[in-house]
Amino acid sequence: MAKKLKDILSTLDVQKCIGNDEVQVTGVQTDSRKVESGNLFVATVGTKVDGHDFIPSVIEKGAAVIVCEKLPDTLSNNVVYVKVADSNEALGRLASAWYDYPSSSLNLVGVTGTNGKTTIASLLYQIFTRFGCRCGLLSTVCNYVVDKAIPSTHTTPDPLSLNKLLAEMVSDGCQYAFMEVSSHSIDQRRIAGLDFVGGIFTNITRDHLDYHKTFANYLAVKKRFFDDLPENAFAITNLDDKNGMVMLQNTKASKHTYSTRSMADFKGKVLEDNFDGMLMEMNGYEIVVPFIGRFNASNLLAVFGAAVLLGKSEEDVLVQLSALHAVSGRFEVVKSNAGYCAIVDYAHTPDALNNVINTINEIRCGAGRLITVVGCGGDRDKGKRPMMAKEAVCGSEQVIITSDNPRSEDPQAIIDDMLAGLDVTEKRKVLVVADRYQAVKTACALAQPDDVILVAGKGHENYQEVNGVKHHFDDKEVLHEVMDN
Fold this sequence. Notes:
UDP-N-acetylmuramoyl-L-alanine:D-glutamate ligase, 26 strands, 3 domains, Protein-Tyrosine Phosphatase, Chain A, alpha/beta, 16 helices
């Protein structure tokens, strides 16, 4: 495949073009190692690496076009140079153009927020598939083109991978695509050039401050997604989050709300709740759903609202909602023959952990104990570590602090950071078992009939990353193994 340079530059704000824009481009690359003859190389500025440093090497490999923010001091006669203000923005738009603007052929809905993105995107994919539509999904757990699973490496892929997946969806006849939109992808402009028909805001609490530095920055990045939505799109926000309406302040999209506590376009409440599911009321209708917890009630309202805004009737959506199944690693219940149960959940922020613990405590109504197994990831926001330990101790009778994905950090140092958030009395509730397998095994050994074990932090993940190496590890597998022995 080859395209004329001028054809894929049409949506870019080009400051200067030096050379012939009629040149044929054979591919778009941002990884200097993958550049081949005739390729266009985009010199992006990353958090650790500056692509401008690799311009000489990609020219040696035969790159025909360089898109950059800073022109090199010495220009090659055989290369076309395109200067732009933001090469990350340019990459998103070039990727979209290279794959023939696939998002414009789809009803693409983005879901952003701290918690709930995976559940909402996955359930919308399930619902519209059940409606008989061909759909795509881009999520933390897995990507899907109709029913073909494609492993996921990031919440939101890089622009080239993202647009390639969207193009596959178009070629496979997809009408809808639902995607998680991470704060990193908004800030790094991975979604530049995409045409969204709708955006959903879930909530915002402390997360990723290792990257964004301040909560205000994090909030502003999330808001930018809604600021960029077009007039013909819809924006639906969670009124129960104090920053929910902030997201809609400057959007050109039509504005809609959902809530479990206030008057809203899509209003719901939990009537009954147990470990098998909930009886809910939504916009005056009663519905039984196989989901647990008030945070999931909020997620289901977002799904309900988005599906209606995409043109489905309320009654038809509610019928499909009642037939859905839980998303992997999101409040998944594993029952033992010994009379206790375990819950596996991806909760890896203080707010998410608080929501899951509160839900468990509301359902168990004081019967049995809650034993929480929790850790924190390495090379990430250190400030939330003591907060995670505090949330676990405040809501549980017993806490086992363990490893999550230590990555390049010493697991014991991460655990020490968590313990620093507890006073002497709180530490009496805590056991430290650094090995995650042994921690889960210990929780099961301690559990009595009617107890509940919460294994938090990894959810759907089937690996543990230690010193840069991913080892197979699945909380659900470990629970089944220990419970069955």
